[in-house]
From TrEMBL:
Pfam families: IspD. The record marks R16, K23 as: Transition state stabilizer. One of its GO terms (molecular function) is 2-C-methyl-D-erythritol 4-phosphate cytidylyltransferase activity. Belongs to the IspD/TarI cytidylyltransferase family. IspD subfamily. It catalyses: 2-C-methyl-D-erythritol 4-phosphate + CTP + H(+) = 4-CDP-2-C-methyl-D-erythritol + diphosphate. It comes from Caldalkalibacillus uzonensis. This is 2-C-methyl-D-erythritol 4-phosphate cytidylyltransferase. Transmembrane segments: none annotated.
Length: 239
């Protein structure tokens, strides 16, 4: 059977959120943001196990929360690095011990991805080795320097990359190792694979799969959570 491991990165500082603490512990309806994300991944049938990457200072707390919330798919909680890319690399090294075929790399700060989209991503990775969830860009994007517009990009070809991003394990490890040798940095993992000249496929995702980045996202997250709880209630009661 195909072994699919999730790597959930939550070792950031959440500076843009401005809470003065890691946004992973932001309370959403009585539960920390990271626990919302992990509880969802715990339920995904295609996922064999989860590696969680957190800041050194949060290691004990997250291990305790994992136990408390019965997150049995979490096989390890490991320490991350200064940048997201380093946290992912450390997560990949740890996940590699149990020899996964495919890894799905996901932001701890994205609590609303669905099983349907994760399943579609796994299918794409089985077929093509590398894929990302993404949504079409809705705004018109300008490239500007010092407030002066240089050009307008052709919107019909623009996609906003999300996570999870999925890869055959050997491919993403090679991409991270090469990036480290060449001191290359990127804000997502797909870019490291693209830089090797390898194909990465887009799997259309959902606008609800938001990353909580700035304070306005908290309100949005609470309303998405309410909507998904109502949806669950409706399913349970047959409404
Ligand atoms: N050194 C880092 C930086 C980021 N992340 C994780 O990567 C995800 C996406 O990053 P982002 O939203 O930028 O989070 P932060 O780095 O925490 O936020 P900021 O850039 O505002 O400080 C988050 O779940 C974050 O915890 C990580 O594991 N290790
Ligand atoms: C990986 C990512 O979530 C894709 O959208 C994003 O690039 C990482 O977060 P950041 O806000 O760029 O740090």
């Amino acid at each position: 059977m195909m072994k699919v491991s999730g790597i959930i990165v939550a070792a950031g500082k959440g500076r843009r959120m401005g809470l003065g603490k890691n946004k992973a512990f932001l309370d959403l309806n009585g539960k920390p943001l990271l626990i919302h994300t992990l509880s969802r991944w715990q339920q995904f049938n295609c996922i064999t196990e989860l590696t969680v990457v957190v800041g050194k200072e949060d290691l004990n707390l997250v291990q305790e929360l994992v136990k408390q919330h019965g997150l049995s798919k979490v096989s390890q909680v490991v320490t991350g690095g200064k940048e997201r890319q380093e946290s992912v690399f450390l997560g990949l090294q740890a996940a590699g011990k149990s020899k996964p075929d495919i890894v799905l790399i996901h932001d701890g700060a994205r609590p609303f991805v669905t099983e349907e989209h994760v399943g579609q991503l796994v299918d794409a990775v089985q077929q093509h080795e590398a894929g990302v969830l993404a949504v079409p860009v809705k705004d018109t994007i300008k490239v500007a320097t010092n407030g002066l517009i240089e050009k307008t990009l052709e919107r019909s070809r623009l996609w906003a990359a999300q996570t999870p991003q999925g890869f055959r394990y050997g491919l993403i490890m090679e991409a991270h190792q090469q990036a480290r040798r060449e001191n290359r940095e990127a804000t997502d993992d797909a870019a490291l694979v693209e830089a090797m000249g390898r194909a990465v496929y887009i799997v259309p995702g959902s606008e609800y799969n938001i990353k909580l980045t700035t304070p306005e996202d908290i309100e949005l997250a609470r309303s998405i959570l309410k909507r998904s709880e109502e949806h669950d209630d409706a399913n349970r009661t047959g409404l």
